[in-house]
Amino acid sequence: MKVLIYGLNYAPELTGIGKYTGEMSSWLAAQGHEVRVVTAPPYYPAWKINEGYSGKSYRTERIDGVKVSRCPLWVPSRPSGLKRILHLFSFAVSSLPVVLAKSLFWRPDVVFSVEPAIFAAPGAWAAARVGGAKAWLHVQDFELDAAFDMGIIRGKRIKSLVIGIEKLLMKRFDIVSTISPRMMDKLSEKGIEGRRRFLFPNWVDTDSIFPQPRQNSMRAELGIPPEAAVMLYSGNMGEKQGLDIILEAARLLSERKDLLFVLCGDGAARARLVERAKGLPHVRFIDLQPMEKLNDLLNMADVHLMPQRADIEDLVMPSKLPGIFASGRPVVATAHEGTQIARAVAGRGVVVRPGDARAFAEAISALSAAPELRKKLGDGGRDYCLENWGKLRVLALLEEKMKDIARA
């Protein structure tokens, strides 16, 4: 097949959507398909364009057999509601002529668009039509619903108009996929039914991420003593992650000298969190680690921490969860009973109410003192990951679905 992939984020970004889109493209190319990508320069999660790239010019490069076209992008140093909209709009405008030209002259079988950003979806649909391709929209998170629920965008009339336009747009795509069963239900609410819906979860390479002994090389590199119980958060540090609860729990557990809270990553909220953590000696911030150290990082944890804001817990599925499960370590998550996160974590970790710092701290304290329970929960997560989120299984199903719609 010839597959044109269109999205804001791409490799070499180490976390989130860019990581998954990059891995998917490279895997498809390795199976013998022709893959081209239209994207922006890497900037996430630091909200700063990577060294060696520019947000002001077009460029083309080749990564793992994939031809990648980079389009100009404005990146605000301090993203806010309006700035985020302008940021997304800048990519939609700069990339539109590129994706249209590639589809018209290269003639792909499938145009695969990734949301966020929904601003690029009209261009993806138009490109598919001018090139005679099938149009596929993949929803990593429902960004518009989340923006309204978090108060980034306000107004009932505006919400009704915007969500209505989104529904009309989605219905024009041949296939709309998303990453969890509850998000599939959300697609049904938006009028996407039957064979036009497709479950395409995020995955993990279970050969690269696997359980290690507790005292591994990352602990040694960071000088973490054997008696310390590491509570790890790794990933994007944005507002929708609700990371303040980790610092609140650390404060409540300040007398527990055996606990070490490690927050690894970058993002719009990191500077504020670092400032707020002053006076908490058992809290450490470290930078994102390269891919070759990811398994060591995940296995450094005795317990993983996965807070999530209550207002978006069924609109996104944390991309870090497959890696956590694959590492064979338990997780303490915040979610309401019955949500997709609560269902995934049940029997593989502990779930507490969103925003309840005391319950979060109590769960951390209990798990840190129960090594046999940690192993039981971690093994359950590993088994679930092997069954549901293995990289080869997930991507092979994607390839099969692409072939089906390309032939239709």
List keywords for this structure.
2 domains; 408 residues; Rossmann fold; alpha/beta; 8-stranded mixed beta sheet; 6-stranded parallel beta sheet
- Give the strand tally: 14
Uncertain spans, ≥5 residues at pLDDT below 50? none
* Average of pLDDT: 93
Counting structural domains, the number is: 2
Main sheet overview: 8 strands, mixed
CATH homologous superfamily placement of the largest domain:
Glycogen Phosphorylase B
Using only C-alpha atoms, the radius of gyration works out to 21 Å
Tally the helices: what do you get?
15
In CATH terms, what is the fold-level topology of the largest domain?
Rossmann fold
CATH C-level class of the largest domain: Alpha Beta
Tell me what portion of residues adopts beta-strand conformation: 15-25%
Report on this structure.
The chain has helices at about 15-30, 80-105, 120-130, 145-150, 155-170, 180-190, 215-220, 245-250, 270-275, 295-300, 320-325, 340-345, 355-370, 370-390, 390-405; strands spanning about 1-5, 35-40, 60-65, 65-70, 110-115, 135-140, 175-180, 195-200, 230-235, 260-265, 285, 305, 330-335, 350. The chain has about 400 residues and is of the alpha/beta class. The strands form 2 sheets. Strands 3-4-2-1-5-6-7-8 form an 8-stranded mixed beta sheet, with helices on both faces. A 6-stranded parallel beta sheet has the order 11-10-9-12-13-14. β9 (about 230-235), α8 (about 245-250) and β10 (about 260-265) form a beta-alpha-beta unit. α2 runs parallel beside α3 (about 120-130) and α8 crosses α13 (about 355-370). The model has no long low-confidence stretch (mean pLDDT about 95).
